[in-house]
Write a structure and sequence with these properties.
Layout lengths: L1 E3 L6 E3 L5 E3 L2 E6 L2 E7 L2 E3 L2 E4 L5 E5 L2 E8 H21 L7 H17 L6 E9 L2 E7 L5 E3 L2 E3 L3 H4 L1 H7 L6 H18 L6 E8 L2 E4 L3 E2 L7 H5 L3 H5 L1
Antiparallel strand pairs: 1-2, 3-6, 3-9, 4-5, 4-13, 5-14, 6-7, 8-9, 9-10, 10-11, 11-12, 14-15, 14-16
Length: about 240
């Protein structure tokens, strides 16, 4: 993001994110890759925008999602859409693979970082091509990493134990979705920038599927909350 300084008349770069998205969790499963994110965008520390779709389809077999500055996410979606649109215009039957999009995003992020105007994003690219699952992470510096699971934001701290205990790369789609839901339950309770409305998307040999947002189930009526967490405890 770039803005013009009214005081100096010079072009300046953004030095910190303004409207930001939260954690992303992505897992491979037996038939493809599934991604989950919440629908909240925060303005600083304020939960300002609560129904934001942050999973984007950039081609018939590629999903893109990120955590970080939302305007940078929107710009990256436009850049990736240009590639897909250009491939369609050539009409030669050649289309970029999910890995091509991941490599492009890594180079774009590295270029922006070298100009001291980085994309403030932790990017996740998921796809399915020629019978192979694809999942990659690209960070703010342009570092590119392919993996069987990816976490960003606070999910990198709170959710890896859940993933390690309950997920494996040959699980079913429903099992992978349930692991992601359990992760967002924890995040909603422990991350002040998390939300209980989440959206899931997955890509398999049939293509891209983006589901409607859903609310994770949470429990607050624990006996300890009702019998001890009250003012009487603190006035004795």
């Amino acid at each position: 993001m770039i803005f013009n300084s009214e005081l100096s008349g010079q072009q300046q770069h953004t030095t910190s994110p303004v409207v930001t998205g939260g954690s992303v969790i992505a897992l491979v499963y037996k038939g493809g890759v599934v991604i989950g994110t919440d629908t909240l965008c925060s303005y600083g520390s304020m939960a300002a925008f609560k129904n934001v779709e942050k999973i984007a389809q950039v081609s018939k077999n590629t999903l893109y999602v990120s955590s970080g500055e939302f305007s940078d996410f929107q710009q990256v979606v436009k850049e990736l859409a240009k590639i897909d649109r250009s491939a369609l215009q050539y009409d030669d039957g050649v289309h970029p693979s999910p890995r091509d999009y991941g490599n492009f995003l890594a180079r774009l992020s590295y270029k922006k970082r070298c100009k001291i105007n980085p994309l403030y994003l932790q990017n996740v690219i998921a796809g399915f091509h020629n019978g192979e699952r694809y999942l990659a992470l690209v960070d703010i510096y342009g570092t590119y990493l392919e993996s069987n699971f990816v976490t960003t934001g606070f999910a990198s701290y709170f959710c890896k134990a859940i993933i390690s205990n309950y997920w494996n790369e040959n699980c079913t789609l429903d099992q992978a979705k349930q692991v992601i839901r359990e992760c967002f339950k924890v995040l909603f309770c422990r991350d002040c920038r998390a939300h209980d409305m989440i959206q899931l998307g997955y890509v398999d040999e049939q293509g891209v599927h983006i589901e409607q947002a859903e609310r994770v189930e949470t429990k607050w009526d624990f006996n300890g909350f009702k019998t001890r967490a009250n003012e009487k405890l603190h006035t004795q």
